[in-house]
Amino acid sequence: MKRISRFILGVMAVGALCVLIFGPRPEPAVPPDRERDVVIHYWEKWLGPEYEAIQQVVDDFNDSVGREKHIYVELMSMSDIDQKTLVATAGGVPPDVAGLWDPMVVQFGSLGALVPLEDLAKAHHITAADYKPVYWNASHWAGHLYALPSTPAAVALFYNRRIFQENAAKLRSAGLDPDRPPQTIDELDRYSDVLTVYVTDAHGNRHVQRVGYLPMPPEWDWYVTSMPLWFGAEEWDARGRRFTLTDPGVIRAFEWMERFPRKLGVATVSEFFTSQGGFNTAQNSFMLGTQVMELQGPWMANYIHHDNPSMDHDWAVAPFPTAVPGLKNVTYCPFDTLMIPRGCKHIPEAFEFIAYVNRQDVMEKLCMLHCKNSPLSKVSWNFLHHHPNPYIGVFEELASSPNAHMTMQCPIAQEAGGELTAIVQGVLALEVDPKPALAAAQVRLQARYEEFEKALNRRMRAAN
Fold this sequence. Notes:
This protein is of the alpha+beta class and 464 residues long. It has helices at residues 6-22, 48-62, 65-69, 81-90, 103-110, 118-123, 133-138, 161-166, 168-173, 185-195, 248-264, 266-275, 285-288, 300-307, 347-357, 360-369, 381-385, 392-400, 413-428, 434-463; strands at residues 38-44, 71-77, 97-101, 140-141, 144-145, 148-152, 156-160, 197-200, 206-210, 236-237, 242-243, 293-296, 315-318, 331-332, 335-339, 404-405.
């Protein structure tokens, strides 16, 4: 706890106690044996079907390994879980297990707010060979294993096959193949242009009725800043510990995104998105057929099936095309994590549950319920052939690719992501020129990172 800043300890401890005293409490299906069981408090961020899925896993654990080893897991859904976990850890009253996101590995790890797990993993015979490298590597920071995955993701191109076929003649006349998805960024642009449909109202104003592709779906912008990956660039150099926002590939990616509002018109794009529903509704633009192609994760199959089952056979998935000749199977792989906060009083028992979730049979059950790919290096025949996403093999291949990328391994990754998202929003509104905006962000974020490093070094020296 000494490595966590005194400021956080002083300001947030009261909040931690309030969370624990006044926060919600779960209703366990089978109550623990209070005299014999070690009760593990597990905070998770999920709601709805995703929460119900992890509750199944918790119940299974309590009725099997937990019963045998006298461990009982109590699951609690927690909003703002990253902030509340840090608050509770600083106050010395953390949950035993926290279900967080991959950027917290570096952020919390650098603050000394997590328990290193490498010795526990070794004792449970959990090794790098069990995982796809992109997830295993992103679970480490500064030589320590700080997390194991719960459910992962990889992103790919969803496209509407029916609309491709209905516009086969137009695509062929443009030199494009309606029987396959675009293979390059240039082809994606050309497909998008052909498949975009405009209508003119009685006043002579042009409106978009259907768009081929847009880079930022409404209510789902959290990975749009990873677009430089498909241009052969990254925004952070982990070895050099520096941002690379002025890299030509990064600039090119942001300038490419600017192409869409310039071609379609800012007002037209804004009007189009305003007319569509939220991501998880039947009025989602992709499910309506008013957007033909979209960058999304494997869970999209669940939303299509539940919100618009008539579309079940109209769509397909392929790797998102790149702008670099020969660069293939590029993807971005964020994931949900299970961590043990510093100050946990039941570390071995907490890890028993984390290890249970990472068993192949359990992990595959959870990932199928969440409609996601697996973080594990081996998957079963049943997982591939009975998964609710019929294209799960595409996501498995992408996540296993050497061109699968993790979230930037930077302690201020969330802050950087927020600033880059704001730049994208400005670019799409044609209010921001990408090149100078990225140059300015480079200076600000690099200075912010160096400030963070200095503060961290001061805390480490004080602790020693």
